[in-house]
Write a structure and sequence with these properties.
Blueprint (H helix, E strand, L loop, with lengths): L1 E5 L8 H16 L4 E6 L14 E5 L7 H10 L1 H8 L3 E4 L11 E4 L4 H4 L6 H16 L3 E4 L2 H11 L6 E3 L12 H11 L6 E5 L8 H10 L7 E5 L9 H8 L5 E5 L3 H10 L2 E4 L8 H8 L4 E4 L4 H5 L4 E3 L4 H13 L1 H14 L5 H17 L4
Parallel strand pairs: 1-2, 1-4, 2-3, 4-5, 5-6, 6-7, 8-9, 8-11, 9-10, 11-12, 12-13
Length: 374
């Protein structure tokens, strides 16, 4: 079977790209008899340069890596690419897909586009809503990454339950770092091992950064612990520096900006706990990353997070900063709680596997291929 994988619109390494790269590698490894054609543009990032005997590329000509040009190419060029490569089915690992092409399987990670007004302009909102309906009416199957997201698609968009398949993502691969790398990373950011709570992710409103900052301001032991925010700062939604100043916590908050994978792993390892009180997640990679590295987790009792975190997390109401602060107090004060969370977290990550995700994804793709009249 020949499967085309749509990578046309990707540019940065965030959650969907993490999912896509890991899943392609697992598909290629687990199904050596099948062929995978990566549909890319001339500016596709290097992390999609996947080397495997059964993986090839098809480059769609795009004059510049601009969103509107990529959106147009997606509608006009992918059908031609399917014919040229002789692919049996198209796999789109995000809602971005050719609208009327029926012979496709689409992954929809969550319904944040509707639940949270994070898109500032009307064209973006309309585009993603159109993509959801294209997946509903013009696809042979939809994959999502948790039982929570599957229920969202059924309840919010009226997807037929038999057409939506929940396939768990798994643990993103993090590099192994030794003590010297960890020490150098902590020194770089002025941190002490075990002396800070860590947040990893972007700063969109649904991530609840403001709630986390307010919780840290309420945290009684904030003088002994810092709060470290890892990830690109997006000032379109929140002026974090202004909020930090307003709350009077300038000395305690460290913003690292973008870090390398080695630095991220080192920052996880050196932290007292991951503080990830997001309002809404379709999956939540940081929870598994922290658990895999033996780090306690504080996260929300909403959306998919209890489903993903299992027994290896301390759950809070993300709408109540005092709840988040109380969890930070518990982590700081109770060694038994920390040990229990670490143990349960290490057990929890065993539930997730890219190989299993590849097997379940391939079952959906094969079903779509069988329905292909060509």
């Amino acid at each position: 079977m020949k499967i085309a994988i749509n990578l046309l619109s990707y540019a940065s390494y965030q959650g969907i790209e993490v999912y896509t790269v890991n899943l392609i590698n697992a598909l290629a490894k687990n199904f050596p008899e099948d062929q995978f054609v990566l549909i890319k543009n001339p500016f596709s990032p290097a992390f999609f340069n996947i080397s495997a005997p059964n993986v090839s590329e098809h480059i769609v000509p795009v004059p510049a890596p601009r969103k509107h040009l990529l959106a147009i190419a997606q509608q006009l060029e992918i059908g031609r690419a399917m014919k040229k490569t002789g692919a049996d089915v198209l796999f789109c690992t995000s809602p971005a897909a050719p609208f009327f092409l029926k012979n496709k399987v689409v992954t929809i990670h969550d319904c944040a586009y509707d639940r949270f007004p994070e898109f500032a302009n009307l064209p973006s909102k309309l585009y993603f809503k159109a993509m959801f309906y294209a997946a509903k009416y013009f696809s042979r199957g939809v994959i999502t990454v948790s039982g929570f997201s599957r229920k969202e698609l059924i309840d919010l968009y009226g997807f037929s339950p038999e057409r939506v398949h929940a396939v768990y993502s798994a643990l993103p691969e993090l590099p192994s770092v030794n003590e010297s790398v960890e020490r150098a990373t902590l020194e770089k950011f002025g941190l002490h091992r075990g002396g800070y709570f860590l947040y990893v992710g972007n700063t969109r409103p649904r991530k609840n950064i403001l709630g986390l900052l307010k919780a840290y301001a309420l945290f009684a032991k904030s003088e002994a612990y810092q709060l470290v925010l890892v990830g690109k700062t997006d000032t379109r939604f929140l002026n974090i520096a202004a909020e930090i100043k307003k709350l009077g916590i300038m000395r305690g908050v460290v913003q690292t900006g973008f870090v390398s994978d080695e630095e991220k792993a080192a920052l996880y390892r050196g932290s007292a706990a991951l503080a990830f009180p997001s309002f809404y997640e379709g999956f939540g990679f940081p929870v598994l990353e922290a658990q895999s590295l033996g780090v306690p987790v504080i996260t929300s009792n909403t959306s998919s997070l209890p489903e993903i975190g299992g027994n290896g997390a301390l759950y809070v109401d993300p709408y109540r900063p005092e709840d988040i602060a109380a969890a930070m107090e518990k982590i700081a004060a109770d060694g038994h709680v920390r040990e229990e969370l670490v143990h349960e977290g290490c057990e929890n990550v065993k539930r997730f596997s890219w190989d299993r995700a590849a097997q379940e994804t391939m079952a959906v793709l094969r079903g779509a291929g069988k329905n292909n009249p060509s």
